[in-house]
Amino acid sequence: MGLKSVWKKVSSQALCSIMGIVLLACLCLVSSVGFAGEQDDTSSVRLGRNVFVEKEQIVETAVAIGGDVEVQGRVRGSVVAVGGSVFLGSGAVVNGDVISLGGTVIKESGARVDGKVTVLRTSDLSGIGGLFPWEDMPHMPRMWRGFSVVSFLGYLTLAILVVLLIPATVGYVSFQVEFNTVKVFAWGVLGIVLIIPVALVLAVSILGIVLIPVEVILVASAFLLGSIAVAQLIGKKITIALKKPGRSIVLETAIGTAVLWVIGLVPVFGWLVRILVVLFGFGGVIVGLISHRRHA
Predict the structure, then answer these.
(1) What is the pLDDT of residues 103-115, one digit of tens each?
(2) Hey, how many other C-beta atoms are within 10 angstroms of the C-beta on 187?
(3) Beta-carbon-side half-sphere exposure of residue 65 (alpha carbons within 13 Å)
């Protein structure tokens, strides 16, 4: 592989990472505007670093992506480590759930957890791929399979981060999809149909041209939020079907995301399911915003 091709690969990966961060920031902005009062001011979220909650310190949530979480104080919400472990000291108090994806949970005597403790090890994550008959897909190169798994884990991490930052918003959109299904689907179709016409109207003026990138980012953020909400709803339905209801929203999202990823690997049918997820998710965001405005 030449230097030029390596540089292109690294640049594309960096661009994808930057776009993911931008979309996440815009997603949080949209949610804070559309659904007031759902953001935490004292959340501790770290990427590639460990999170430490000291004694007598109180935070809303403690999240480490690619690191460990150590709690000696109090966490009002959930404690999550993606690609790391969770250590709860003797004086730790967690009012929410404790979740470790790819690690373990160590709990000293005296530590208190009001919610559920969930550990999903690396072997469990890799086992997801076993749900799908890879041997029946000779057209899928081994390199593409590896890329698919990596992209899934990256999206799963992003989905979990979104759920932890704005759980009420994700739950609200999921509620709309579940109980206003027809309306959500109709608004999803209408919203997607209007994307291009709105962009053309904006292109008429200089100010509108400047706003076109804003429209693109907002639509992409709505797609992301809606897709995550649909995944959470699917995960909730699966836990209910397995007679294990009442699981944390993070675990429901992880299960739903994994199921959608596996289904998405099926030729033709997988793409149809993805389209439906986007339609219902986008419609759920629109209906949620309309409903929130009416009751504001």
Answers:
(1) 889 999 999 999 8
(2) 23
(3) 15
